[in-house]
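Please fill in the sequence for the structure shown.

STRUCTURE ENCODING:
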């Protein structure tokens, strides 16, 4: 598994074990599923843009995609950053549409987890997708001002 790296794997696995062990409602599992599907959005776009498998980095704070030495332009980088939240919003919307036919608590929890994760990742802080997207949008804005 050379395409998956773990920073401080003992801490990551201990946190994951604790979270799953103490989760009697199943909400942590739904949140983890939403997070994995979020990363699948990034992976799909990465593979479409580079024709290679990405390197995923696991840590106690989440899963991240390492771009390594790949040189993507601003537009492609923006698309890659937006892919995760877009996947979450798409899953949220599709789940809510399905809830019109057959509603369930788990469906609403899954929709809420995806919606909240997508919104959270749009925040312009730390290593979140929103910070990368904001940086690119700000660069494009400055470029247009100087024309």
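FILLED IN BY: designer on duty
SEQUENCE:
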């Amino acid at each position: 598994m050379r395409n998956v790296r773990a920073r401080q794997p003992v801490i990551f696995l201990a946190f994951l074990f604790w979270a799953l062990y103490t989760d009697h409602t199943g909400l942590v599992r739904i949140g983890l599923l939403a997070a994995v599907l979020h990363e699948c959005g990034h992976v799909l776009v990465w593979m479409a843009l580079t024709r290679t498998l990405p390197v995923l980095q696991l840590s106690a704070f989440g899963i991240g995609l390492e771009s390594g030495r790949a040189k993507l332009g601003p537009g492609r980088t923006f698309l890659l950053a937006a892919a995760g939240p877009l996947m979450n919003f798409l899953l949220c919307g599709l789940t809510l549409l399905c809830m019109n036919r057959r509603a369930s608590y788990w469906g609403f929890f899954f929709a809420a987890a995806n919606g909240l994760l997508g919104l959270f990742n749009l925040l312009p802080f730390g290593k979140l997708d929103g910070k990368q997207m904001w940086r690119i949008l700000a660069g494009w804005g400055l470029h247009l001002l100087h024309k």
